[in-house]
Amino acid sequence: MSRPQTLASLGKVVVIGGCGFLGSHIVKYIVERHPQTQVAVIDLRTSSNRHASPTVSYHDGDITDFAGMTKLFSKIKPDGVIHTASPHFDLKPEIHDKVNVGGTKNLIKVAQDTGVKAFVYTSSASVILDATAELINADERWPIVTGAAQPEYYTTTKAYAETAVLEANRKPENFFTCAIRPAGIIGEGDVQILPKMVGAYRKGQTKFQIGENNNLFDFTYVGNVAHGHVLGLIALLQTQKMLPTTPLDSERVDGQAFFITNGEPVYFWDFARAVWHEAGDRLPLSSVWHLSADTAWAIGTVLEWAFWVLGKTPNLSRAQVRYSTMSKYHSISKARQRLGYEPIVSLGEGIRRGVQHILAQQEQESQKKGQ
Amino acid sequence: MPSPSSMVYYVFHPNELRSIIQWKVWHNPVHERNEEKETENLKRCFFFLDLTSRSFAAVIKELHPELLVPVALFYLILRGLDTVEDDMTIPLEKKEPVLRDFHNILDQEGWNFKENGPNEKDRQLLVEFNVVIEEFKQIKPAYRDIIKDITKRMGNGMADYANNAEHNTNGVNTIKDYELYCHYVAGLVGEGLTRLFVEGGLANEVLLQKPDLMESMGQFLQQVNITRDIKEDLDDGRRFWPKEIWSKHVDEFEDLFKPENKQKALDASSEMILTALTRADDCLYYLAGLREQSVFNFCAIPQSMAIATLEKCFQNYDLFSKNVKISKGDACQLMIESSQNLQLVCEIFKRYARKIHKKNNPNDPNFLKISVTLGRIEQFIESIFPSQRPPVDNKSPASVEEAERKKKEDAEAKWDMIYMISAVMLTVGTISLFMLFVAWMAGARFDIAYYQMKEQLGELLGWGSSNVTKAVEVTSKIVEAVPAHTEL
Questions:
Q1: Interface contact flag, B396 A347, Cβ < 8 Å
Q2: What is the domain-level CATH number for residue A150?
Q3: Record's GO cellular component, any one (chain A) (predicted)?
Q4: Chain segment A63-115, per-residue pLDDT in tens
Q5: Chain A touched by B357 (CB under 8 Å)
Q6: Interface membership of B293 toward A (CB under 8 Å)
Q7: Is B281 found in the same domain as B361?
């Protein structure tokens, strides 16, 4: 058996949401590592994050539109699908229902109907996180948390979609699915984590620390998440080739979910300080003010009420207090054993790339304003 | 007799004094050597063990009887080899053949060596080396083969370094060279000991299939020593910190010791500490493979001391002016905790990892790498002693449909409950009313019963019956007064 990680072509691969943050990195990864693959990107708007390679084609489309998707898939005839599309976290519950659940179910149906062999879904590591417990070296044995126990409706819909994807595995018998659960994605184009942290530095908030800073937290460079997705896709395609032989239960990838992280859980505030340092902060450790988690929680509560009256969002909220004082990290043993996954970019390099990207963008913007 | 300064120290650190007393009073060796059965020759060997090793002699002498003598001799043989290598007064052409041939010397009855300079502290061991050879002859052939194999490889490695002119003038160049040097002087010891443990049936043979782990055991100890001994080695004209590390911060090795380079020196030291720390999780993994308590203690105690020493050296500028040491109280505490089980040793590693973490400086070039390495130690400990188990599956709904079904079921269950309670209440109520009716028909006086109940209740709550009547009077007066007010 040739080493699948070095295959020149993965056949025809559709990347849903390929113009988004993660999706565009997956496209870049496939072009670089498997250059003879035909990549078709489907996204709501395909104007941004376009890859120049001639092996990549772009198609506008809405995954909630069943007829439109069927038409596109019939034309492209993909071997594999990587589905990364998701609406923004802060949008209304109906949209999450419609896109995450409805859209994903549409895609499964379309893929089954048009002879797709492998379907990889981007889930979220938070599907096992409830409103109170920490996650300490959590693995795939942890049950998913949805409904009333799940504090974020977005995550509930991600979990529903993941279940739907995994249940569709081997239906029909030559259709294979798996789910990737990344934790805290950072990198070039990240809109959630790094920009907020750089913003906190600009506002002079780096002299505070909430809690003891003994809580380990997983962050994952986007290129590693892309790597995990493609390894999942390759494994599913291999499983399909093996038919009618079935892999051992302990080696199966199809029908399975995998946590993908950098494998470098790090103390939460150390991560923040590394980001701030990369952005230019040189504050010595001795000037940092320590705020206990309880005090911060109380302040957060008061601020949230006060700002609610004013109709604004405060700088410190209880959710932020919780996230910055809790342990949240995972074991990636299953991905290592079954996917052959090993992070390809270190956390430090990931931070450097992500923050430098933000600084370059801000530089450009300020130059534009100056003109 | 303790010095006055240490007495003052312990007045202010009573916990450490307590640890010392506890160790001295309560520590029972797992095994004790039986001096009565020992030959004069063997006694002389143990005398040399005490003479040449301060830290290892104690743990070696508590080893399981099966391995006590082989390990003690292994130590003395390597110490002998080291004494030849270390002595700069022996010319190379004389030194090299001894180093390369040392494993054969072990078979030469009566061999000894008198060419060491007078200042070599372990000189006497080589002068009387024939006693070691005599005892070596008597141990099991399987142990002899292991010891000879390691001696041969270490001797050749040392000879290569002794021959390497560049190493002698400039010290160690790259990190790879540094690790190779540590391999020869310590990694090989890890291998030899592991093979002895497995041969003696006191460790899991799987350890032999994981050579990285035994290598790390030696590397960790050696790297910690090299990191800590920078000043002492400089004074002796030697340098073991690899150029690849210090040259990132200063141009000349000696610049590390200049006060104006304080920050640079600290940055270089944290990279040395980081390099050693990356071995820590392997060491814990290795300890998990040991089966016998005395072997566990023998391996665990030095490792715990090593991580505590690293913590003491971390961000400590004294490293460049004196010999940084953990206090005797801390050492006793570490020995108490390391001579029990793996979980306690893991606690030590976690405790010191967090102490290092607290001092980690965000402006250090290796800040994040150190943090990640400490996180890896903690994660490894969690993987063998998990503090969190997979939670109970509360059967969260897995789809929108299921969620709605569940909601509906919950609502139905709620109404079921309401119906059930109403039915029970209705039944009980009907029966009670019926009983009251029967009683009334039979002539019960509910008015008297009600009055008596009120009175008894009043007594219970502390008003006398007279109070009740008073209260009634007062109330009626108020009631009378009311119309007067309303007229206003």
A1: no
A2: 3.40.50.720
A3: endoplasmic reticulum membrane
A4: 999 999 999 999 999 999 999 999 988 889 999 999 999 999 999 999 999 99
A5: yes
A6: no
A7: yes
